[in-house]
Amino acid sequence: MIEEGLRQELSRQGVVTTTLEELYNWGRKNSLWPLQFGLACCAIEMIAASMARFDIARFGAEVFRPSPRQADLMIVAGTVTKKMAPQIVRLYNQMPEPKYVIAMGVCAISGGPFKEGYNVLKGIDRYIPVDVHIPGCPPRPEALLQALMTLQEKIGRQRLTGEGRARHLDADAPGEWPIPEFGKHDLEPPRNPALWQPPAMTRSE
Amino acid sequence: METLEQLKARIEAAAPGVRVEIVPNGNPANPASLLVDGGHARAAAAFLRDDPALAFDYASNVTGVDWPERTVRERIKVKRMAGGVEREVEEVCERKTPAYLEAVYHLYSMSRKDGPLILRLRTENRTDRVSLPSLTPVWRSCEFQEREIFDLYGIVFEGHPDLRRILMWPEFADHPMRKDYAEPDDYEYEPTPHDAVLARARGHYPGGTQP
Predict the structure, then answer these.
(1) B28 has a chain A CB within 8 A of its CB
(2) Which of A80-89, B69-78, B124-133, B165-174 has the lowest mean pLDDT?
(3) Looking at beta carbons, which residues of chain A come within 8 Å of B188?
(4) For B200, which residue in chain A has the nearest alpha carbon?
(5) DSSP secondary structure string, B137-184?
(6) Can you tell me the distance from the alpha carbon of A156 to that of A129, in angstroms, rounded to the nearest whole number?
(7) 3-state DSSP: chain B helix, strand, coil percent, rounded to 5?
(8) Which one, A116, B71, B147, B204, has least CB within 10 Å?
(9) Taking Cα atoms as reference points, which of B137, B192, B140, B146 lies closest to residue B166?
(10) Subunit contact B207:A202, Cβ cutoff 8 A
(11) Can you give B67-83 as a three-state secondary structure string?
């Protein structure tokens, strides 16, 4: 491992040094291909983000793929109804590793204004691991770009070996998430307990 | 358009045996409606559509209403003997109405540029005798809306060409728009709980609902 000071000195002299990890992550984070699907009004902002004014192509994420087999990033843009949730999890399972999830808008992160309704899932993080949450109703395209940059930073920090390495390089890490089933009153199970637990609350007195 | 009284008489003439009732609405913005009994609803609807003077050719909206058992207060005038003189006195009487489900049809006439005429159908109760005749054979536009009422209120429309749930999944057992629907209790933290949500929050977090 090369020292940071020496590395800067070398770079001033016109010698570029890098590591395999950096190169690998640099390539991955600058070609995040999202899965092309939208669920509600947030999708309109996602489309706006992909058009010329906001231009998500600046971040290498303009290639919206119509097939989960070719996608790296799932942008859950909009209200996830309980009827749609199993399909979202199924699509996520069909994406090849490495894969990431951005939950866009209050509906996708918590159920939003429909939280107390009977038909809307109270956040997609009950079933799939979410990397970046964006609040807003809907979030502006800048917020989606901010989320994409946050995700890029996160990918840039991922290790390739050792403890806490990226999930796709860890053979023991889960590769498939259980798909909820339609029950008589709710989805069965209502959450994936390995991924999400209701927040513990104790009064601090 | 003819008045509802005239319309009632004509429906009764066209569909013998039909029971039509005019349901007044206290709100001035909402017109009164016609309550037709389930057994003759299809004949009455066909008459409303086919009669050239009425020509209600378009059902724009079909919705459901859940009426639980309730007490209605009514003011009625009664004659009473008071001090040897007969006088009319207003009395408030209470009566119980049974529980039932209602399907409400809003009919328009495109050819005469008229409407809406509001048609109501009532089930016998809201537990086991919940079927009504489907008006989809009369107005094709009722199909999805009757499916929605079947899904959310549980009214069974007999003669509907494709009666399935439309919004919830087929395995779902409840009818979410009914007054006594209880949603599954999967409480999550709410920053400002109140009313029913506060009661639920206290059940889930006995130590207090604020961090």
Answers:
(1) no
(2) B69-78
(3) 110, 115, 122-123, 198-199
(4) A116
(5) TT-TTHHHHHHHHHHHT--EEET-TT---SSS-TT----TTSTT----
(6) 18
(7) 20, 35, 45
(8) B71
(9) B146
(10) yes
(11) ECCEEEEEEEEEEEEEC
Give this complex's ipTM: 0.77
pLDDT tens-digit series, residues B65-76: 999 988 888 777
Interface of B with A in 167-196 (CB under 8 A): 167-174, 176, 181, 183-184, 186-189
Top-confidence residue, A205 or A29: A29
Tokens 């079909």, located at residue: B62
| C-alpha separations of A178 from A86, A88, A90, A193 in Å | 9, 11, 9, 11
> Which helix (DSSP H) or strand (DSSP E) does residue B104 occupy?
strand B100-109
Q: Which of A184, A203, A204 sits opposite B171 (nearest CB)?
A: A184
| Pairwise CB contact (< 8 Å): A203 & B207 | yes
Cβ–Cβ gap B211/A204 under 8 Å: yes
Q: pTM for the whole thing?
A: 0.84
Q: What is the pLDDT of residues A106-117, one digit of tens each?
A: 999 998 899 888
Task: Answer yes or no: do A118 and B181 touch at CB < 8 A.
Answer: yes
pLDDT at B121: 93
Helix (H, G, I), strand (E, B) or coil at A63: coil
Facing A119 at nearest CB: one of B168, B187, B207: B168
Mean pLDDT value of segment B50-68: 92
H/E stretch holding B116 reads: strand B114-122
* A122 and B CB contact within 8 Å: yes
- Closest CB to B208: pick one of A116, A122, A203: A203
pLDDT digits (tens, 9 = 90+) for A2-18: 788 888 898 899 888 88
Q: What is the pLDDT of residues B168-181, one digit of tens each?
A: 999 999 999 999 88
Confidence of residue B127 (pLDDT cuts 50, 70, 90): confident
